[in-house]
Amino acid sequence: MESWLTTAITWGVPLVIIIFLVMVYNRLVAFRNRFKNAFSQIDVQLQRRHDLIPNLVETAKTYLSHEKETLENVTTARNQAVAAQKAAAANPANGSLVDKLSQAEGMLTGALGRLFAVSEAYPDLKADGTMRDLMESLETTENKVAFARQAYNDAVMNYRTYKESFPNNFVAGFTGFKDASLFELEDPEARKAPKVSF
Amino acid sequence: MVTDFFEHQDVARRKTWQLVCLFLLGVLLTVLLVHLLVYGLHTAFLVFLGGDRLSLIGWLTSDLGWQLSLATVVVIAGGSLLAYLQLRQGGQVVAKWAGAVLIDYDTADPAQKRFINVVEEMSIASGTPVPSLYVMHNEPAINAFVAGYQADQAVLVISRGALNELDRNELQGLSAMNTVIF
Q1: In chain B, what residues touch A157 (CB-CB under 8 Å)?
Q2: Does the beta-carbon distance from A143 to B121 stay under 8 Å?
Q3: Per-residue confidence at B8, pLDDT binned at 50, 70, 90?
């Protein structure tokens, strides 16, 4: 009578633990794939953004012949962003790559902002049909990045919450699930306090 | 809280399962009720005329019983098919009836292009599919509406007036409202 109970416990308890570990692992994999998928949605939009910029610079060059530096800054920022984007797209589960991408895109936003500020003084540029189409495409792409970012950040949050909860954190640590980063797009210039002069 | 696209899918899948189970249960109950009714009438008839009474099981397994079950299921299937065909048309019928024209995605018209972009942005934001877009070219007033029974056959109709008069932010607000309504 005793022996089947002991057998049940000796086999049953490890079995239950193993099943639990497998379930947690699978759920971690599911959450990670979700945020990877959400990242690829952002990636598609970022790629479109990067593709629009050379056209924009070319169109603006004809009108902004005296603003070479501003245009060059945009091109440089864009090339850096492309490099960061390719690196992050290859491995979106690596938090530091996503951080670098956030920074690069922030710099690009800053450079574009300065270009738009400068072109306020050139009404011919704003009236140009090609320019208007490009601006609309750029605006819609950036809005889509913003919305796709929200979905990505939510997915990362779900992953993190699950991964950091007890006892999932043990499984995650054992099986090598890394931290994921939120995608924060901000213009580094915007952080500086504005100068007020009277 | 913004639920992401995958949570939408999980919820939808769970609901589908629940609905399928409930539907099958409903079909079973309907068939049983029909049987009970007919059996009751049949027995009453026999008692009146005097003759051998069948037990309920005897009735259910008799030839007439099987035919009745089959007939009930066929009627339910036929009705479901009719309803399904009706629902499939849903949104598009309303759009055509309002005199709206399907938007060409390759259009050169900047107002229409802007509208398409704005709706796509709203779809990404809400995690829902992009609805079919229609324009009422002859309507100068600012107006828009959504129609359709299911998310994947949704229809968003907008007036020419709205496309021309509203700026981008207002257009975004309009699309957002319609996305939520749907």
Answers
A1: none
A2: yes
A3: confident
Q: What's the pLDDT tens digit per position in A82-119?
A: 999 999 999 888 888 999 999 999 999 999 988 888 88
- Cβ distance A111 to A193 under 8 Å? no
The first and second tokens of residue B136, run together, are 């009422």
Q: Is some CB atom of chain A closer than 8 A to the CB atom of B109?
A: no
CA-closest candidate to residue B107, choices B117, B99, B97, B98: B117
What is the residue whose two structure tokens read 């007890």? A166
What pTM was computed for the model? 0.71
**ipTM of the complex, rounded to two decimals:** 0.73
**Both tokens of residue A67?**
């603003």
For residue A73, give how far its alpha carbon lies from the nearest alpha carbon of chain B (Å): 28
Q: Which residues of A touch B127 (CB under 8 A)?
A: 151
What's the 3-state SS for B8-56?
Answer: HHHHHHHHHHHHHHHHHHHHHHHHHHHHHHHHHHHHHHHHHHCCCCCCH
- Decide if A41 and B124 are in contact by the 8 Å CB cutoff: yes
Q: Do the chains contact at B6 and A140, CB–CB below 8 Å?
A: no
B5 contacts A147? CB cut-off 8 A: no
Annotate chain B with DSSP letters as a single string: ----HHHHHHHHHHHHHHHHHHHHHHHHHHHHHHHHHHHHHHHHHHHHH--PPPPHHHHHHSHHHHHHHHHHHHHHHHHHHHHHHHHHHHHHHHHHHTT-EEPPTT---HHHHHHHHHHHHHHHHHT-PPPEEEEETT--S--EEEE-SSGGG-EEEEEHHHHHH--HHHHHHHHHHHHHH-
What's chain B's Rg over C-alpha atoms?
26
C-alpha to C-alpha distances, A126 to A133, A134, A198, B153, nearest whole angstrom: 10, 11, 30, 39
Query: Nearest-5° angle of CA B92, CA B96, CA B101?
Result: 100
| Gap from A142 CA to chain B (nearest CA, Å) | 10
Burial class (CB in 10 A: 0-12, 13-18, 19+), A155: buried
